[in-house]
Amino acid sequence: MRLSDADGASAPSVTTVLATPRTQPGGVLCGEVRLKGGDAGVAIDQICLGLVTSPYAAHEADGHRTNEELSQAQVSGPAVLRPGEEKVITFQAAIPWRTPISEIGGRHLPGMALGVRTEVAIATIVGRSDLELVAVKPAPSQSRVLQAFARLGFPFKSAVLQPSRGEDPPHGPPPFLQKIAFYCPGHHAGVVHEVDVTFVPSSSDLVVELQADQPPGRPTHIGRFRMSHEEALRTDWPSEIDRWLMTRPGRAGR
Questions:
Q1: In the chain, N or C: fewer CB atoms in 10 Å?
Q2: How far apart are CA 86 and CA 71, in angstroms?
Q3: Is 149 exposed, middle or buried (0-12, 13-18, 19+ CB in 10 A)?
Q4: What is the per-residue pLDDT across 145-174, written as a single tens digit (0 to 9) for each?
Q5: For position 166, what pLDDT does the model report?
Q6: So what's the pLDDT on residue 217?
Q7: Are 202 and 180 in contact (CB under 8 A)?
Q8: Which residues lie closer than 8 Å to 146 by C-beta, 6 or more apart?
Q9: Among 7-21, 58-72, 93-107, 236-250, which stretch is predicted with the lowest mean pLDDT?
Q10: Are 72 and 89 in contact (CB under 8 A)?
Q11: Which of 47, 120, 43, 41 is nearest to 77 (CA)?
Q12: Is 186 helix (H, G, I), strand (E, B) or coil?
């Protein structure tokens, strides 16, 4: 990124380099912000690093992607950058627990683009860099749930972000939740169209919300599991998911 210069002189440039281009919810993102001065010295007010995604792209008819900021961390306060000076600022930015997953088992999830964007404020000018892509894998407790669907033969269908419910505090988690959808395997085909998984994690626990879409005339089957991350690692998720599906309304009347 090169900051604008009203006089047409060479302006300062800013580059963000990630040391950890792969992270997970509740993790840390490490890297450097590299500054290089232009023809004139500048007084920087602050430098911030934002974690950004495009949550509503799947619902926009024109395909326009609107960047949504998940979190922002200040990596530098006031600083002076002299002409031609090179300055490196290291950072460690916390990743929110509600950060969407963008890959499962090393496979990128279509539509789940996340990245970091550097903002440099100089007086009334705020320069924003292009996105540096970041891969977000599941936390171990989330991975156990997703592995269970693979073991049960549920093929991956899609992953989208939707506005979160009204009970979320406005100053707290990101304003949306991720829904990961799976097609049903053969022995459930025709009676359940798909199963959606939504994670609502925090530093202390994991909420797993399941939704089974049934044929018209039958209600949507909802399940909710809440436990610590340690309990989630010990849970027999294939058995829990199978047991939950067996209790869906209208099953006995098939």
A1: C
A2: 27
A3: buried
A4: 999 999 999 999 999 988 776 554 444 556
A5: 54
A6: 63
A7: no
A8: 104, 138, 180, 197
A9: 58-72
A10: no
A11: 47
A12: helix
The beta-strand segments (E) located in the chain are: 13-18, 22-23, 28-36, 42-44, 46-53, 68-76, 79-81, 86-94, 103-104, 107-108, 114-122, 125-128, 132-133, 135-136, 156-163, 176-183, 194-201, 206-213, 221-227
Nearest to 19 by CA among 40, 33, 39, 6: 33
Q: Is residue 59 helix, strand or coil? A: helix
State the Cα–Cα distance between residues 176 and 52, nearest whole angstrom: 13
The length of the chain is 254
pLDDT tens, position by position, 166-218: 554 444 556 678 999 999 887 666 677 889 999 999 999 999 999 998 766 67
Matching residue, tokens 């089974």: 212
Q: Do 132 and 16 form a contact (C-beta atoms < 8 A)?
A: yes
Which amino acid, residue 120?
Answer: V
Mean pLDDT, the chain, integer:
83
Residue with tokens 């199978």: 242
